[in-house]
Amino acid sequence: MILNSKSQYTSFIKSEAKRLGFLSCGISKAGFLEEEAPRLESWLQKNYNGSMQYMEHHFDKRLDPTLLVDDAKSVVSLLLNYYPQEFQNGNSFKVSKYAYSTDYHFVIKEKLNELLFSIREHIGAVSGRAFVDSAPVLDKAWAAKSGLGWIGKNSNLLTQKVGSFYFIAELILDLELDYDHAVTDHCGTCTACIDACPTQAIVAPYTVDGSKCISYFTIELKGQIPAEMKGKFDDWVFGCDVCQDVCPWNRFSKPHQEPLFSANHELLTFSKSDWLELTEETFKVVFKDSPLKRAKYSGIVRNISFLED
């Protein structure tokens, strides 16, 4: 099949994304994110990034994909559902649902590389790069610009028919395509996420102080968890899903169909005593390819100790 127009290229990319299991695909014109620049600057000035100093690096690249890919023309945003089919034992320390299975970086990067290979095979010498939240790309901003949802009051991307339990990834290409348009905000007067946040990390609608978020404390923070957070973690030991769990749009979440996201059965059945008795050797075996490796065994032990003391 010979593709020779922007519309054919666009249709091909979206159909390939669907074939590879992505929930949806939206495309934006690559360029400077003018609206995001003052927001990001203000967020950093208020130290909402806490000890996540990497957020301060590559400020210009975060706002302009043409600095990441020479002659970039398009940002292809993709969503991949991770909403689980089964959940953790109710009497256990809690792990964020995205971490139930294999580390998503491996799964998504492989799909993105396959999509890029397919684009080159059918369209020609297209230059581009794949990104899965490990590079300075404002994922949610590009996904919203591409019409895949809107940024909610909890600062997550929300989509009417599927909620927010999905990963966001991008291909930045030097290929002109047909571009999608942003959708409207459907949060309305709802404040469920703001009211439910255990640490009041959502300091204003659409603004999260990252340095107060349970996910920050249990994953990103390398030092001791501040004593004033005692009793506020509601048994979360890795990440937190509260602002997503209470969001009315997530009543539309449907279980994923990705075999590589099959939940780690041992994690699901762990009781509190299993966590308390966890050795470093067992951690290495049970969580070999898991996102929990990011916190390391020492981090998980620290988090459990903080909950139990």
From TrEMBL:
<feature type="binding site">
    <location>
        <position position="154"/>
    </location>
    <ligand>
        <name>cob(II)alamin</name>
    </ligand>
</feature>
<feature type="binding site">
    <location>
        <position position="243"/>
    </location>
    <ligand>
        <name>[4Fe-4S] cluster 2</name>
    </ligand>
</feature>
<dbReference type="InterPro" id="IPR013542">
    <property type="entry name" value="QueG_DUF1730"/>
</dbReference>
<feature type="binding site">
    <location>
        <position position="190"/>
    </location>
    <ligand>
        <name>[4Fe-4S] cluster 1</name>
    </ligand>
</feature>
<dbReference type="Pfam" id="PF08331">
    <property type="entry name" value="QueG_DUF1730"/>
</dbReference>
<feature type="binding site">
    <location>
        <position position="193"/>
    </location>
    <ligand>
        <name>[4Fe-4S] cluster 1</name>
    </ligand>
</feature>
<comment type="similarity">
    <text>Belongs to the QueG family.</text>
</comment>
<keyword id="KW-0846">Cobalamin</keyword>
<feature type="binding site">
    <location>
        <position position="215"/>
    </location>
    <ligand>
        <name>cob(II)alamin</name>
    </ligand>
</feature>
<feature type="binding site">
    <location>
        <position position="157"/>
    </location>
    <ligand>
        <name>cob(II)alamin</name>
    </ligand>
</feature>
<feature type="binding site">
    <location>
        <position position="133"/>
    </location>
    <ligand>
        <name>cob(II)alamin</name>
    </ligand>
</feature>
<keyword id="KW-0170">Cobalt</keyword>
<feature type="binding site">
    <location>
        <position position="168"/>
    </location>
    <ligand>
        <name>cob(II)alamin</name>
    </ligand>
</feature>
<keyword id="KW-0004">4Fe-4S</keyword>
<feature type="binding site">
    <location>
        <position position="213"/>
    </location>
    <ligand>
        <name>[4Fe-4S] cluster 2</name>
    </ligand>
</feature>
<feature type="binding site">
    <location>
        <position position="240"/>
    </location>
    <ligand>
        <name>[4Fe-4S] cluster 2</name>
    </ligand>
</feature>
<keyword id="KW-0479">Metal-binding</keyword>
<keyword id="KW-0411">Iron-sulfur</keyword>
<feature type="domain" description="4Fe-4S ferredoxin-type">
    <location>
        <begin position="175"/>
        <end position="207"/>
    </location>
</feature>
<feature type="binding site">
    <location>
        <position position="197"/>
    </location>
    <ligand>
        <name>[4Fe-4S] cluster 2</name>
    </ligand>
</feature>
<comment type="pathway">
    <text>tRNA modification; tRNA-queuosine biosynthesis.</text>
</comment>
<keyword id="KW-0671">Queuosine biosynthesis</keyword>
<feature type="binding site">
    <location>
        <begin position="240"/>
        <end position="241"/>
    </location>
    <ligand>
        <name>cob(II)alamin</name>
    </ligand>
</feature>
<feature type="binding site">
    <location>
        <position position="187"/>
    </location>
    <ligand>
        <name>[4Fe-4S] cluster 1</name>
    </ligand>
</feature>
<comment type="function">
    <text>Catalyzes the conversion of epoxyqueuosine (oQ) to queuosine (Q), which is a hypermodified base found in the wobble positions of tRNA(Asp), tRNA(Asn), tRNA(His) and tRNA(Tyr).</text>
</comment>
<dbReference type="InterPro" id="IPR017896">
    <property type="entry name" value="4Fe4S_Fe-S-bd"/>
</dbReference>
<keyword id="KW-0560">Oxidoreductase</keyword>
<dbReference type="GO" id="GO:0046872">
    <property type="term" value="F:metal ion binding"/>
</dbReference>
<comment type="subunit">
    <text>Monomer.</text>
</comment>
<dbReference type="GO" id="GO:0052693">
    <property type="term" value="F:epoxyqueuosine reductase activity"/>
</dbReference>
<keyword id="KW-0408">Iron</keyword>
<feature type="binding site">
    <location>
        <position position="62"/>
    </location>
    <ligand>
        <name>cob(II)alamin</name>
    </ligand>
</feature>
<keyword id="KW-0819">tRNA processing</keyword>
<feature type="binding site">
    <location>
        <position position="222"/>
    </location>
    <ligand>
        <name>tRNA</name>
    </ligand>
</feature>
<dbReference type="GO" id="GO:0005737">
    <property type="term" value="C:cytoplasm"/>
</dbReference>
<dbReference type="GO" id="GO:0051539">
    <property type="term" value="F:4 iron, 4 sulfur cluster binding"/>
</dbReference>
<protein>
    <recommendedName>
        <fullName>Epoxyqueuosine reductase</fullName>
        <ecNumber>1.17.99.6</ecNumber>
    </recommendedName>
</protein>
<dbReference type="GO" id="GO:0031419">
    <property type="term" value="F:cobalamin binding"/>
</dbReference>
<dbReference type="GO" id="GO:0008616">
    <property type="term" value="P:tRNA queuosine(34) biosynthetic process"/>
</dbReference>
<dbReference type="InterPro" id="IPR004453">
    <property type="entry name" value="QueG"/>
</dbReference>
<feature type="binding site">
    <location>
        <position position="247"/>
    </location>
    <ligand>
        <name>[4Fe-4S] cluster 1</name>
    </ligand>
</feature>
<keyword id="KW-0963">Cytoplasm</keyword>
